[in-house]
């Protein structure tokens, strides 16, 4: 049976078959991906999340060549926000109806584990209804090295202080040859997988992610998807839960040291990999479209290439936007609802587990003046 026919039947494809999809006409692959999206997620709705990104510090010792956000401790624009400054950002999110923050920073050796515990307690005491998903696997690895504790011990202490989840950032392409060529000091694949599995073992949230455009080919992209699929299989079998969803975006290089040295990725490659990810990741139902890196129009198109979610409002995005002036830093609920409705779907607000929590009055919202 042809590989696309097998995919359309919902059969699990192996490595060679998934690589073969990269050689097939994209409209044919997209048609299969969209049909599977309609089966695996609600066929009528496209969801979105009201949240905020908070970058508590830009000091980092890892020094990835594709990052324009990080600073050394001695640079004049290096910063670490105070608890009060972070709390004010959370309050601004609550004022627009948001109940989740995504908080990350650099690997800052001046911040002990107790600083993070104190921050979490401070926020939970003042904003008890807000979810705190924070500290990438890279940051947890940094705390391992700083404290001498295991990832499990670090995560247990952070969870006790109020941490709800750890975002799956820093995955990029989970193939060490690709990772080390672009950023030699970046967290290795085994450590990323190990730390995320500890997060899931402790019953906390994480998101599967992927960034293309680091010089990888179809084989490495498929390898990455298989790492995620196998980790999700293990987590579901052992813990009864796993990644809440999947997010794909393209490497932004314009303002980085690797501009002109890494190829980046085109809109065609983005849509192609998104469609193949929908086919490959048969154990993850929620797939995001990336409006910040691709723009609204490509993100709308992505809703017919396997995506069933339009991501989040973010309110503030600093890391990816630092690498490229073409990246949007935020979007309003009105803007996201308009994009979803114009693409032919019903907009619905969700939580981090892709559960619908509210349906906006689309007509009233779109009739209101822009914020």
Automatic annotation (TrEMBL):
<dbReference type="InterPro" id="IPR034405">
    <property type="entry name" value="F420"/>
</dbReference>
<dbReference type="GO" id="GO:0051539">
    <property type="term" value="F:4 iron, 4 sulfur cluster binding"/>
</dbReference>
<keyword id="KW-0408">Iron</keyword>
<comment type="function">
    <text>Radical SAM enzyme that catalyzes the cyclization of dehypoxanthine futalosine (DHFL) into cyclic dehypoxanthine futalosine (CDHFL), a step in the biosynthesis of menaquinone (MK, vitamin K2).</text>
</comment>
<dbReference type="GO" id="GO:0044689">
    <property type="term" value="F:7,8-didemethyl-8-hydroxy-5-deazariboflavin synthase activity"/>
</dbReference>
<feature type="binding site">
    <location>
        <position position="290"/>
    </location>
    <ligand>
        <name>(3R)-3-methyl-D-ornithine</name>
    </ligand>
</feature>
<dbReference type="InterPro" id="IPR013785">
    <property type="entry name" value="Aldolase_TIM"/>
</dbReference>
<dbReference type="InterPro" id="IPR020050">
    <property type="entry name" value="FO_synthase_su2"/>
</dbReference>
<keyword id="KW-0474">Menaquinone biosynthesis</keyword>
<comment type="pathway">
    <text>Quinol/quinone metabolism; menaquinone biosynthesis.</text>
</comment>
<feature type="binding site">
    <location>
        <position position="312"/>
    </location>
    <ligand>
        <name>(3R)-3-methyl-D-ornithine</name>
    </ligand>
</feature>
<keyword id="KW-0479">Metal-binding</keyword>
<dbReference type="InterPro" id="IPR006638">
    <property type="entry name" value="Elp3/MiaA/NifB-like_rSAM"/>
</dbReference>
<feature type="binding site">
    <location>
        <position position="172"/>
    </location>
    <ligand>
        <name>S-adenosyl-L-methionine</name>
    </ligand>
</feature>
<dbReference type="InterPro" id="IPR007197">
    <property type="entry name" value="rSAM"/>
</dbReference>
<feature type="binding site">
    <location>
        <position position="136"/>
    </location>
    <ligand>
        <name>(3R)-3-methyl-D-ornithine</name>
    </ligand>
</feature>
<feature type="binding site">
    <location>
        <position position="60"/>
    </location>
    <ligand>
        <name>[4Fe-4S] cluster</name>
    </ligand>
</feature>
<dbReference type="GO" id="GO:0005506">
    <property type="term" value="F:iron ion binding"/>
</dbReference>
<feature type="binding site">
    <location>
        <position position="64"/>
    </location>
    <ligand>
        <name>[4Fe-4S] cluster</name>
    </ligand>
</feature>
<dbReference type="GO" id="GO:0016765">
    <property type="term" value="F:transferase activity, transferring alkyl or aryl (other than methyl) groups"/>
</dbReference>
<feature type="domain" description="Radical SAM core">
    <location>
        <begin position="46"/>
        <end position="293"/>
    </location>
</feature>
<protein>
    <recommendedName>
        <fullName>Cyclic dehypoxanthine futalosine synthase</fullName>
        <ecNumber>1.21.98.1</ecNumber>
    </recommendedName>
</protein>
<feature type="binding site">
    <location>
        <position position="67"/>
    </location>
    <ligand>
        <name>[4Fe-4S] cluster</name>
    </ligand>
</feature>
<dbReference type="GO" id="GO:0009234">
    <property type="term" value="P:menaquinone biosynthetic process"/>
</dbReference>
<keyword id="KW-0949">S-adenosyl-L-methionine</keyword>
<keyword id="KW-0004">4Fe-4S</keyword>
<dbReference type="InterPro" id="IPR022431">
    <property type="entry name" value="Cyclic_DHFL_synthase_mqnC"/>
</dbReference>
<keyword id="KW-0560">Oxidoreductase</keyword>
<dbReference type="InterPro" id="IPR058240">
    <property type="entry name" value="rSAM_sf"/>
</dbReference>
<dbReference type="GO" id="GO:0046992">
    <property type="term" value="F:oxidoreductase activity, acting on X-H and Y-H to form an X-Y bond"/>
</dbReference>
<dbReference type="Pfam" id="PF19288">
    <property type="entry name" value="CofH_C"/>
</dbReference>
<dbReference type="InterPro" id="IPR045567">
    <property type="entry name" value="CofH/MnqC-like_C"/>
</dbReference>
<dbReference type="Pfam" id="PF04055">
    <property type="entry name" value="Radical_SAM"/>
</dbReference>
<keyword id="KW-0411">Iron-sulfur</keyword>
<comment type="similarity">
    <text>Belongs to the radical SAM superfamily. MqnC family.</text>
</comment>
